[in-house]
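Title: Prediction job returns without error message
Component: structure pipeline
Severity: low
Priority: P3
Assignee: unassigned

Description:
Job completed but the reporter wants confirmation the result is attached to the right record. Sequence as submitted:
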Amino acid sequence: MDPRSRIPGLDRLLQDGAATPFLARFPRPRVVDALRRALDQARAGVVDGAWEHDPADPGPYWHVAAHELEAEAVPSLRPVLNATGVVLHTNLGRAPLAPEAVHAMQAVSPGYSTLEFDLESGRRGSRYDHCAGLLAELTGAEDAVVVNNCAAALVLVLNATAAGRGVVVSRGELVEIGGGFRIPDMLERAGTRMVEVGSTNRTRTADYEQGLRAGPVGAPPAAVLKVHRSNFRVSGFTEEAPVAELVAVCRAAGVPLIHDVGSGLLVDPAELELPPEPRASTSMAAGVDVAVFSGDKLLGGPQAGLIVGRAEIVSAVRDNPLCRALRVDKATLAALEATLRLYRDPATVRRRVPVLRMLTEEPTALEARARTLAEGLTAAATAHEAVAVRTEGRVGGGTYPEVAIPGWGVRIETKDVGRLAAALRSGTPAVVARVEDDGLIVDVRTIPPEADGTLCDALLSALEYRP
């Protein structure tokens, strides 16, 4: 007798009592599809011996279907605990948002909002008004506009100021910003012509002056672009034209100076014990015409590209058709506005913006947290050694690549560190840590203090994990 004849039909399985909880939790079409695949698996398996269950027993079919349905129910985008010590971990979503920003997003997301409506006049408003005033206030710019990321902001500004014309840029600043995207490609996509000046390691002010005289007769370059090399450093025999001198050169030539300052830092880096870093405020004070920077790096807000500068240029950017294609939604604007408002109080911003708090947390506090975590793990999991150790964190997000941040964490010794790391990633919540020299490093700098207990539980579960 063919064993496949003992396999129950789909209708019979759906009438089985085991179907009730599944049909209550999952859409019927998904349950049906999962069962069909389980039945197909059984039909092939009973012939070659891969299906080791009684073909007439409905239980194994529901077990296979349940595994598929449960896996499908897990969201692809999930929260994780970042135990890497990299504060702006690009792959983990960069800056965690302040509670005020999260609340602002929750407030406007469920219903309608004043995204493009003026309550006072009862007329149509502009989404670009919501953060423009705050950005102008915090950077010293005349006006501002927000788009969806910094790369988009740069392409938009280039297109609005120099489409069909040349843009002067140093050879030493033709950087790759990540994901294979390079400044020359962005200049091309913006519809501009790249005018390279200087060399990889030395570009003088005179090089920019010469570059501005290049090009077809009657069509000289229309702008100068200065790019902050945020994700690498050039040292040794180097020279870089000061921003103040470039401002003078551009004014004499009657062209705008565009400054990509990158990280979006709004506070003095010395307050974070970090080396000097270009800021939009210092660019504006120096006379730069327009600056672009990120919202989700050292600013500590949502992903966004922020454009600040002279009102005339910002207006041209806002009127550019590309601006609509790159605009942000109400949730992003709400989170960004709430984050920017925190910067109005310099006395409290470092502890209220998570990124700034992580970067400035006292080593003694980190050590105490690491020792408490290590003691908790050792007491509950005596088969594994867990000790508090000094660590070196990173800023991340393509900023301060040469800066190591002293911190504290826990080192866990285990026979199979790869299995432990995988178990942590598959848990709820998922935990991402570092593997160093056959040990697992859990850096507490990037763990919110209120999540220390959750982290300890996740580690204990992973240490007991059996695949």
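Comment from assignee: result matches the submitted record. The chain has 19 helices and 20 strands.
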